[in-house]
Amino acid sequence: LLIQIHHIQKKIYSIVDLSNIIVVDQSVKDDCGITNANIMHDIDALITDYSAAYHEFLLLNRPIAITIDDYGDYLEQVGFCFDFFEYIKGFYVKNIEDLKRFIDETANGIDSSHDLRLESLKKIHKYVDGNSTRRVVDFICEKINWVISLSIEYVAQKEFYLAMSMSYWGTAASTYLQLLTISILSSNGIIACLPL
Q1: What count of other Cβ atoms lies within 10 Å of the Cβ of residue 64?
Q2: pLDDT tens, 122-141?
Q3: Distance CA 97, CA 101 (A)
C-alpha cells in the first residue's frame, strides 16, 4: 500500500513503519524527480477524497475509491463548484467496512464501479485519445504564429529583427515544447526576450 498524506494533514497522522505500507513524502518525490503522474501510472487502484487526483487517475480506467465520510463538513466549509455526486463517480467509502470491501474487490480483480467511472470520464474529459498535449501545443503555436505575423510587421517598420526560438524534446508524450521565446534583435543585439 502506497500512501501520500496531504501536506496539511501530516501533523494529524503519525507515520508507522510497516513492511507492507510505504508513505511517500513530497521531499523524496522532489529529490527523485517523481510526479504524481509517475506514481499513478504504476498503481492498481486509487483511494482519494475530493482531490484533483481523481480526475487524473480517471483517465487510466482503474478502480477509484472516494472517501466521503466527511462530505457534509467539506461541503459546508469548502464547497464544490459543481454537483459532486453527478460528476465524481466511483466506489464511495463512507466507513471502514466500505474501505475493506474496496480493498477486497480490488485484490480479487473486481471493479464494481467501472461503469459509473465511465460516465464520469465522458462528462469530465472531452478527449481521451492521448493527444491532449499535442492539441495544446498546436493551439499555442497557432496563436504564436498570429502574434508573430503582427510583430514582424511592426518590427519591420522599426528596423528590428524578430527571432523565435523553439526547442523540442522530440515526441515525448508528456512535453513537446521545452522552451519557447521570442527575441527582438537590433543591430546592437537582443533588446527584448519574451518567454511565452
Answers
A1: 24
A2: 998 888 888 887 888 778 77
A3: 6
